[in-house]
Design a protein that fits this description.
Radius of gyration: 34 Å
Number of domains: 2
Shape: elongated
Structural class: alpha+beta
Strand content: 15-25%
Helix content: 40-55%
Number of strands: 10
Length: 422
């Protein structure tokens, strides 16, 4: 009776140990799956944010800009023809830049004004092709100014149009066809200093980029109107804005163009102009990846614990196998394979769950962002195999490393001592 009770108690303890080992193995598998899924979702969201932000920036800025910071460009037509002969350049358009104040009966606001060529400008600044209201044609002949009396200023010059951002138009409560005033820096010089010249314009259209810094402080007029505002008498411009074939090769093309020009000209690509923004996003992506990868690392310690307990539980079985001729290498391979199966299963589950969640986020967009805080209204997601492959291989490799120590312990058992202790 005592012997049967002893056998029963031993059996129950063995079953409890096996159940505990199984629970630890399941937790290890779940931990790996959670880590892989979290990494895939986080990388997908960071890629989405970077891509969306890049597209927003590139709708309002040129891909390559050539400018003369000191005296401007007086020979821009000749320079434009030279640049257009460079392989990879699709379009080149001149521009002028100044800062002034835009006012309406509802208030006033500082404005970064850009003078553009209405014909070639939209090819370099893509958002001008998709105005919310109005038209590029209104830059020269604004709506409501067809009548000769209504279409001229007090000095007899014709009224011109201006395109501004939607947020700025809402702030000043103006729309297409309404008149606003620009306080030009080329005013009269008096005893009290230079008094700005007030020049009336007509709203020719509005745009929206989704980026508050553009939609509240950026405006476009024709080159002719910009020269008049700035008091420029000749055909001088600040520089040229280029459109290129390969957007992500813009920095290399900028270096090539810079080598062709004089040192008085500066050449910058969109990457160089926004290097701080994208460097910060890249660093944030790296930091988030490292933090989330710790989940996989913690799960690997659970794999180590479960395999060590399995070695302790199966000590007698290992000794019997080795007594029957099993090699240490084959014993080690058994435990490595078992730990690797846990890691592979967890990685596969995490890969499937992460990709599925990313697809759901991308399709249904059920996570909305506060308006004005971000340049998009929902969480963007972009899956890239360049991120998925390293995550998958890294998780499997860490799980494999976690099996080495328990496998070594199992293969190092001495059969005689193991059986004697049992």
């Amino acid at each position: 009776m005592r012997f049967e009770l002893f056998i029963a108690m031993r059996y129950l303890r063995a079953k409890r140990r096996q159940t505990f080992i199984s629970i630890i193995s399941i937790f290890s598998m779940v931990g790996v799956a959670l880590g892989v899924a979290s990494l895939i979702v986080a990388m997908g969201i960071m890629n989405g944010f970077t891509t969306e932000l890049r597209e927003k920036v590139m709708t309002a800025t040129a891909q390559v800009v050539i400018y003369s910071p000191l005296e401007g460009m007086r020979n821009h037509e000749e320079l434009r023809r030279t640049i257009m002969d460079v392989p990879g350049v699709l379009n080149a358009t001149p521009f002028l830049y100044t800062e002034l104040v835009l006012s309406s009966p509802r208030g006033m606001k500082g404005l970064m004004l850009r003078g553009i060529d209405p014909d070639s400008g939209p090819a370099s600044i893509s958002m001008l092709n998709n105005l919310l209201t109005g038209s590029m044609d209104y830059l020269d002949i604004p709506p409501g100014t067809e009548n000769e009396m209504d279409g001229v200023r007090q000095d007899g010059t014709p009224l011109k149009g201006i395109i501004i951002g939607k947020e700025l138009a809402d702030t000043l409560q103006v729309g297409v066809g309404m008149r606003v005033n620009l306080l030009a820096p080329s005013g009269r010089r008096g005893t009290a200093g230079v008094s700005p010249r007030v020049v009336p314009f007509v709203i020719a259209g509005t745009f929206s980029t989704g980026m508050i810094q553009f939609d509240t402080s950026l405006g476009f007029v024709s080159l002719e109107a910009a020269r008049s505002l700035m008091g420029i008498q000749d055909q001088r411009v600040n520089g040229l804005e280029l459109t290129v074939e390969e957007v992500f090769e813009a920095d290399k093309l900028a270096e090539k163009i810079s080598a062709l020009l004089d040192k008085r000209y500066s050449v910058r690509s969109w990457m160089e102009s926004n290097v701080n923004i994208f460097a910060a996003l890249k660093l944030e992506k790296l930091a988030m990846g490292i933090v989330l990868f710790l989940i996989v690392l913690v799960a690997s310690f659970s794999i180590i614990a479960s395999l060590i307990m399995l070695v302790m539980e199966k000590t007698r079985d290992i000794a019997v196998l080795m007594s029957m001729g099993a090699t240490r290498k084959s014993i080690s391979a058994i435990f490595r394979l078992q730990g690797l199966l846990i890691g592979l299963t967890g990685t596969a589950l995490g890969l499937g769950a992460g990709c599925l969640l990313c697809l759901l986020l991308r399709r249904y967009k059920f996570i909305h962002l506060p308006e004005g805080a971000y340049p998009m209204s929902y969480v963007p997601v972009l899956l890239q195999w360049q991120d998925i492959l390293p995550i998958t291989l890294g998780a499997v490799f860490i799980c494999y490393l976690a099996t080495l120590y328990p496998a070594r312990q199992a293969s190092g058992l001495v059969p005689a001592e193991a059986l004697r202790s049992e």
